[in-house]
Design brief:
alpha+beta, single chain, 3-stranded mixed sheet, 2 helices
Length: about 80
Amino acid sequence: MATLLMDFYNAESGVQLTLEWRNEDEYTLGKKFLRSLLGGEVGSSVYEADGVPFYYLRNDRDLDALLDFRRRLREKQ
């Protein structure tokens, strides 16, 4: 099974992180959530040689919303 990774940078705190999604469904839901949170086509900038999408989070609220979304996804399983 392929590793489903996304890289993030939080502009407010300067924190960089990588999140791994459990499966294709989670990964797809995560991409949809990020599109609604950040607007437009997000994650289209791919800086890594292995093609891991990079997302620019504006602030701590964006990061908190993302982490809360992942927590809720995993509670449903």
